[in-house]
Design a protein that fits this description.
Shape: globular
Structural class: alpha+beta
Mean pLDDT: 79
Helix content: 25-40%
Largest sheet: 8 strands, mixed
Number of strands: 13
Radius of gyration: 19 Å
Order of helices and strands: HHHEEEEEHEEEEEEEHE
Length: 286
């Protein structure tokens, strides 16, 4: 039997993909841009989260029954996360982020990122995607991501061609984060307007850098006996230096792997976390 979290994860993706299919079938939904962007859109529209084998399901049950603990993967696909069957133990809140891709002047694929304001309460000063928590009026994860992008950096939803969604990720605050991939066909038409209450800077980086073993370091950490690697990418543009790490780096590695259809040139060493049976608002993953 599927775990509670996986059921929710699958339902979340099904809702987003159904909404996406409806948008793409809309006769008013058109796509412009270079041939490369058109081909990329066609490729990504065919993407579906990887299926899970019966062997994984059996292992999931074994962990649940024998250990009675929740296993999470911080910064990695939530779909691989075993969870106890009691739905009252774990009800993660929803969020969505926009992975907005465009073609750079040199023909490379680039992704829009932000540096969070130092005045916000969580992840202050860190690099992230435009995005945030779902609101009651949001129809789906796509609307959450595009609405937040407009609020944070002034990116109009009509300028972005949403082509697919990735499997959910878990943040260290146990927030379910759904990455939504969209393509900005006319970058010159976008003039960022950062919401200074939330964003200090808007910049872009080459997507492929998150598959290369360059300007990257990693740290080995441990959580309840499990060792894992946290990846850090150094990036400099317009005389500004940025450190991209944690959940943002994990999502970028996954997105780049899907777009370029190859794995990273370095060892990811994804973690398996064990969360205490009692999970409350103060529970934070390392």
């Amino acid at each position: 039997m599927l775990s509670i979290l996986r059921r929710i994860s699958m339902a979340t993706n099904l809702t987003s993909l159904t909404s996406l299919s409806s948008r793409l079938m809309d006769s008013n939904y058109t796509f412009g841009g270079s041939q490369r962007l058109i081909d990329l859109a066609r490729q990504l529209r065919l993407y579906r989260p990887p299926p899970h084998s019966d062997e994984e399901e059996l292992e999931e049950q074994r962990i649940e029954e024998n250990e009675g603990k929740v296993v999470s993967q911080l910064g990695f696909a939530e779909s691989a996360t075993p969870i106890v069957k009691d739905p009252q133990r774990f009800r993660p809140k929803r969020a969505a982020v926009l992975i907005c891709l465009f073609e750079g002047e040199e023909g490379d694929l680039r992704v829009i990122l932000t540096k969070r304001s130092t005045r916000v309460s969580t992840h202050s000063g860190e690099v992230s995607f435009p995005g945030g928590k779902a609101e009651e009026g949001d129809a789906d994860d796509i609307e959450t991501a595009t609405r937040e992008a407009k609020e944070e950096i002034g990116l109009e939803p009509s300028m972005v061609n949403v082509v697919t969604v990735l499997e959910p990720f878990l943040s260290k605050h146990l927030l379910r984060v759904v990455p939504v991939i969209g393509i900005l066909s006319d970058k010159k038409a976008f003039n960022p307007i950062p919401n200074t209450a939330e964003v200090d800077a808007v910049f872009d980086a080459p997507l492929e850098m998150f598959l290369k073993d360059e300007n990257r370091k990693s740290e080995e950490r441990e959580w309840m006996g499990d060792k894992y690697l946290v990846h850090f990418f150094d990036y400099e543009t317009d005389n500004n230096k940025y450190l991209i790490w944690g959940l943002t780096a994990g999502i970028l590695i996954r997105a780049a792997s899907v777009v370029y259809q190859r794995p990273p040139a370095f060892l990811e060493q994804k973690p398996n976390y064990r969360i205490p049976k009692v999970v409350d608002k103060d529970t934070i993953m390392p």
